[in-house]
Amino acid sequence: MTRLVDCDVHNAVPDDAALRPYLPARWLDHMDHVGSRTFSPYEAGFVYPKVSPGGGARTDAWPPGGGLPGSDLDFMREQLLDRYDIDLAILNCLYRAAEQRNEDYGAALATAVNQWQVEHWLDRDPRLRASISVTFESPELAAAEIRRAAASHRGFVQVLLFPRTLAPLGRRRYWPIYDAAQECGLPVGIHFASTTGAPITSAGWPSFYIEDHTSMSVAFQAQVTSLILDGVLDRFPRLKVVLIEGGFAWVPPLMWRLDGLYHRLGAEVPDLARLPSEYLRDRVRITTQPMEEPERPGDLLELIEEVGQHILMFSTDYPHWDFDHPKRAFQTKLPPDVHDRIMRGNALDYYDLGA
Questions:
Q1: Within its chain, how far is the Cα of 91 from the centroid?
Q2: Which residues form the domain of 170?
Q3: For residue 355, is it within any domain?
Q4: What is the DSSP string of 170-204?
Q5: pLDDT in tens, 72-90
């Protein structure tokens, strides 16, 4: 029986050379002579946190044989899969193919990442599943890659998007992605990551990493609001959405606020068939890490009930610095049925992973 499902594990492309076997000659030449040009103002990589050059990784997660944290499957087995008896783990590779200004190069990189994941991860450990990397700012290209990757390997269980996008994800431009995901029976996962050329908060550029990390939850709120109010969940009735690494304490007040305003401003969105909160409770799932932890540990259970115990799915966020230990993630002991739902049941059902 499947006992533990980890819904957010990060495998890392060790370097661009790892993708070369999967790139056509045209894009190999582009990689060598032009290279990466992204929407991000951080061309050379993210400038913080300064103390963690491995993309926010734990200091003990650097493989002893070299390479980036998350790039060595054997070391991941030792530190995560075997150590914590994880039966299934969903990989979210955050390689920045989706942020390339050259759309076709980005699409080629996304395909290369997915082929690399099949050969070096999915085919090497039966416990692993993976998200499909796509160039989501080029939705037609992304839709084509979803269909190709989903048909190529059953280990792909999700489409990977980021929350800081060039436009809200409910907009029509992104609909081809949802059409392809629904057709292939795959949830769309929105994962903490990414920047664009615009400031990363609604008030401008922050001074500190703690501001960036805290305000990321606001991006998730904006995206789920857009998906609901722009009618995506009505237009694509079988589409599933997963919010990954964005927290969840904000969910009850967002639902209350949306429902309250819908009663007053609902004429703007007359095509909605249900209350906004009903869409969220029915169609959205959320991973647990990072958990907002109340001062009083007992309040965590009350928060989980407010969010909906069927909505939460456990995640460790390995190998990042805010990793959650499967046996120490919750401040308070959960009732056995709630614990079972969060640690395995919800993910098995939502991703259709079987028992």
A1: 9
A2: 5-350
A3: no
A4: TSGGGHHHHHHHHHHT-PEEEES----SS-SBTTB
A5: 999 999 999 999 999 999 9
